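Reference record
================
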Amino acid sequence: MRLACPGLLSWFERGATIVTPTPLLAAAASEQCSRSQLALGRETWARPAIRSVGAWLTECWREARYSSRDVPTMLSRSQELALWNRIIEAENPELFDVSAASRLAHKAADLLAERYIAAETELWEEHPDARQFQRWLRLFRRKCQEQNWVTRAGLWRLLPDWISEGVIDPGVTVFVAFVSSTPALRAVQQALGERSIELAVECGAPESMTVKQFEDPAYEVEYAARCARSWFETDSSQSIGVFVPGLAKQYASVERAFQRVFGGPVFHVNAGVPLQRHPLISGALLLLDLAKPRIHHANAGAILRSPFLKGAGVERSARALADLELRRWREMDFSLRDLEKASRNCPVLTETWLKVRSVLQQKALLQELAEWSQFLGDLVEAAGWPGDAELSEQEQQVVEAWKNALSDLAALGLVAPASDFDSAVAQLRRLFSSPVEQGDWSSPVQILEALDAPGLAFDRVLALGLSEETWPPPQALSPLIPLTVQRANQVPGSWAQSGREERERSTRAIFDAAAFDVVVTHCGRLTPLVRMKSSPVERQVAARVMPSMPLEQMADSKAPEFQASGDARGGTSVIKAQSQCPFRAFAEYRLQARAPDDACFGFDARDRGSFVHRALEGCWRRLESQARLRAIAPGDLQLLVREVVSEAVSRDERGPLHVLISRTERERLETLLLEWLAVERERQQPFSVETVEQEQFYEVPGLRLKMRIDRIDRLKNGNLVLIDYKSGKQSRPKLEGARPAEPQLLVYASALREEVDGIFFGQVKPREVKAVGFSRERQFKGQTAQVRKDWDSYMESAKANVEKLALGFLHGEAAVDPIKGACEYCGVKPLCRVNEMRGAQEEDEE
């Protein structure tokens, strides 16, 4: 990558200051200078004075400050935005996004300064937003005048006088690649006189041009990456430019495709991604939550697992277990004390919490931003950020960016009042929200925003996405300055002819950037600007750029046999998991893979199911039989139910909201139990409750499972009926087939040595309370409780299926073979990736 100015190198040798319109062009010029010095055989050389126009203005201001006491203080960009934010928030607190309005106002003010546009003419009156901006601008300028501040754009007004009066002497200044000149720039050049040199871009014409059409944007990006690699492998010394409209939005897909094709640091994506997306910065910002009274459950877990805390490597497993323990509490937020309790088995982290608490003692309700800067830096440092791992060169630059941002936060105290903790953190986050250009400008393949093409030169160029939908982009005119004002001051793109010229210039710059070949790709219709340019054109409708390579497939459905050392963990859930999907049983009960618990607001389905079990257990320990249920008076039954429900529902009431939720749950559960007991009262066969929540064992050679049966009833004929309470919707098919969806009752029946005459789900669900299952004789009323004439053969078949499932688990059967609905609540899908497998099968069928 280089500047398209052949005479530029001679000005390097003369020691002139090179000024470019953008930091990108300044970086290209610096890289070009370094390559020219290396080509001359030099090992060392003086660093050339190459500046973007913004950096050059700042340098001139510094020189003026050294020479004169009357020079005002210059605000940094972040200070300007903070001042705009403060003024707009005070004037219009109802605005939804004050930060966005501040950025628009900042750009509009810069445009006024560079174009010498008056902000008080009659043309402003016809535009309501413009009148509002006028009020903001007056307040902004008044504040700057009172405090003797100046913005960087405001230096355009002062610079000609400083040069003419000898306050500063910029020396010979070469303005390179300025496509359009502003009145402010012309005034500065006039003040410099003969010391001002202007170098225009010298455009060439590519030797060949190819246009390719694609059906899918993903194939288009893949083609571009493979084309760039082909060029690079042909001649690694050539420079390759890849221009993408809207690169920032496509950064992830473009970077991924080029990384997959190149597989190494040969390319650089100049997407200007905000630093807050970098893991180091997002990790540091996350640690600031430690200063809050309560930490959101997701952030609390992320802090425990953070790789940027001290000791993260050596305590990785222990901290993951601490996160799991924290999740088991299922709270929506946690305190620092909760994190300390969960991580009590992590000695390094325990020591870190002590340092954090020491820093937290310095926290105040209201402080100046300089004090908050010190506090936030100390807090992150106390937590051990950036961790113990060795940092790469880029990561070290990110750490320096964090320190610079803290310095900028302290500097914001010049324009911002004292604030609380949340406001200070919001200011710091805002500093990391602006795009930052980072990367290796020496990389032979440079991936750039298409609008960055003017002034650049490459050997070969790829232009992606030049379709009617994406190119050219809309003109970026200020919405706060009336269009008539912009037209009167000849702002580029503010009238039809100028807009066309700007679009054509942007398109022409892409083609002119290539010395040899240009390849244009698009999806849909090619933009007319390219159609007019490309003659002749090679058009190619492309499908996949390269067919997928066949992959070797290996059967992984067989695991080593299970070796028991006592009772197997999981009980009947092992058989249920093996029935629903063998791999799920293997992952959950052999690999001990579990989905972390989710936080819940109030009580979740698991809590409510537990309450139902405890309350019904208490009921039948008191009632004992159907006869006593029928004999008890309704009022006494209601009192009994109320008593057991009160004992069953959690008493951990930590606040008014939890008290209200618990009371509501007790009322709901009381109604449910009375409805269920009404169903039990109408049972056809008299019964007594033999056991509730009794432990039993199911055994096959090599496997012993402990289980707890919700309830066993003894019938008048001496046989048993098994009941398993469920708070969700149930159906009889869940008890049928070689792989039943809910086989627990079948496991219970297989484990008992006595004759079983019925197995039922007790569906204790609001408005749908009923018994669901099978029996030898009629037990419950309703169609969901079915009598089976083949009861004996059904039970023999069910016991054989249960044994087959148990032996399958024992012998290591672990195929990914879920029954219908099994994946809905499965927590190990990331391990089996069954959805991806199904998607691949569907593609093959197509």
In short: The longest strand covers residues 687-700. Residues 535-546, 840-846 have pLDDT under 50 and may be disordered.
